[in-house]
């Protein structure tokens, strides 16, 4: 099968690799029709993880079931399914409590909880930027989509990761009706967090970034854009909240946070959140941080440590939640919002490409070229 393979820093190739196949009785085999490039792929693409060359990328996958193992009882050949980026078993203590991002059985690395497709340090699973994807524990992991799935793939595919993740940011931040919310990052995840906060009837949503095209997307859904290349985002949030700070904050950037000039400061968004969220406010961090980052220009962060304003965070009595999203906690409900015509998360999509054009897609999205907000790949062709 054809697949997008990580070859080394800033190098992906579309290669022929052995077909994904049913390996154990509980597997489902999906012919991938829609699969996205994610900001998480970019950490790997830029060589800022220990992902080994040769791995197939892609953890935001949707397609048609073409084969099921003999132990699969629910999912059927022909079903259209969206697959959460988490590979989860469904029967461990964490899965049973809804913590599918921290599944205790699917990552073979001792002492590491949680697994994902085509992801550094998240188990051996190949990704779905390919013609075929093996889905372990298929009955548990496949969200079977409604009858309009084929026509609305670019909406439903957002259920694999970024919409649940944006929603998760607002859950961790405890966003409630009427709240003011500041979101750092207007990439696809930050935009989905803004979208989610809006669904939760937030009173005011402010989104910080420096890319005018991305800020314009935020504005399209009624958020207030804050361009941190023109103004201090902290001052701006303070002004908009009458000097109090936002009730809630979301981090949707991650460890490669940088200033508008491009210099990386892994503590930048976290400290800006502490400053721009109010006393006793709540913060949700879904931007990825890693335990070790040898390639970081920041000496502390090479060891995974951050110069975090803990004193101010404590003094303000703030609370912070963080980590990978447990996609299964939200994907079914968000699916209903799409099916019922209440949500159209495909509004973030800027490009739909053939799998063969993935290397160019990665290049543009990685440079955050104007207009490249979210890239969707179609392994079976765009036609
Ligand atoms: N927790 C999860 O389950 C989960 C799931 C998906 C993605 N992620 C992570 O979320 C993060 C964002 O993903 P994305 O797809 O939106 O990626 P992205 O890289 O396209 O978007 C990040 C945005 O942040 C902006 N930015 C950089 N520094 C900033 C700063 N100091 N202040 C404000 N904005 C700044 C960039 O200009 C960019 O637009 C990544 O770290 C990704 O790995 C986490
Ligand atoms: Zn993703
Ligand atoms: Zn589990």
Automatic annotation (TrEMBL):
Its cofactor is Zn(2+). Residues 25-137 form the Alcohol dehydrogenase-like N-terminal domain. Keywords: Metal-binding, NAD, Zinc. One of its GO terms (molecular function) is metal ion binding. Signal peptide: none annotated. Coiled coil: none annotated. Pfam families: ADH_N, ADH_zinc_N. InterPro entries: ADH-like_C, ADH-like_N, GroES-like_sf, NAD(P)-bd_dom_sf. CDD domains: PFDH_like. Residues 188-299 form the Alcohol dehydrogenase-like C-terminal domain. Belongs to the zinc-containing alcohol dehydrogenase family. This is Threonine dehydrogenase.
């Amino acid at each position: 099968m054809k697949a997008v393979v990580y070859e080394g820093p800033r190098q992906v190739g579309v290669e022929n690799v052995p077909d994904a196949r049913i390996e154990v009785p509980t597997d489902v085999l999906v012919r991938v029709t829609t699969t996205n490039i994610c900001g998480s792929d970019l950490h790997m693409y830029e060589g800022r993880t220990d992902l080994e060359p040769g791995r197939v990328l892609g953890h935001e996958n949707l397609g048609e079931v073409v084969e099921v193992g003999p132990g699969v009882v629910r999912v059927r050949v022909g079903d259209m399914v969206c697959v959460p980026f988490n590979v989860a078993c469904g029967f461990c203590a964490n899965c049973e409590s809804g913590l599918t991002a921290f599944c205790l059985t699917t990552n073979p690395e001792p002492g590491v909880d949680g697994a994902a497709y085509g992801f550094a340090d998240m188990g051996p699973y190949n990704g779905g930027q390919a013609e075929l994807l093996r889905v372990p524990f298929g009955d548990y992991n496949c969200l079977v989509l409604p009858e309009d799935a084929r026509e609305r793939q670019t909406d439903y595919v957002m259920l694999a990761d970024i919409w649940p993740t944006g929603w998760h940011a607002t859950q961790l931040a405890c966003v409630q009706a009427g709240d003011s919310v500041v979101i750092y990052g207007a990439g696809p995840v930050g935009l989905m967090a803004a979208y989610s906060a809006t669904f939760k009837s937030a009173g005011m949503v402010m989104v910080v970034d420096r890319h005018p095209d991305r800020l314009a997307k935020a504005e399209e859904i009624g958020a207030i854009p804050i361009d941190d290349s023109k103004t201090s985002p902290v001052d701006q949030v303070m002004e908009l909240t009458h000097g109090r700070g936002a009730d809630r904050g979301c981090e949707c950037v991650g460890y490669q946070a940088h200033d508008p000039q491009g210099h990386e400061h892994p503590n930048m968004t976290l400290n800006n959140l502490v400053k721009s969220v109010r006393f006793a406010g709540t913060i949700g961090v879904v931007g990825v941080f890693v335990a070790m980052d040898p390639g970081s220009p920041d000496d502390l962060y090479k060891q995974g440590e951050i110069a975090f304003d803990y004193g101010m965070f404590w003094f303000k009595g703030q609370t912070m939640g963080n980590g990978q999203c447990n996609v299964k906690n939200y994907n079914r409900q968000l699916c209903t919002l799409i099916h019922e015509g209440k949500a159209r998360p495909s509004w973030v999509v800027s490009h739909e490409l053939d799998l063969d054009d993935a290397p160019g897609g990665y290049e543009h999205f990685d440079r955050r070229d104007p207009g490249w907000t979210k890239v969707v790949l179609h392994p079976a062709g765009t036609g």
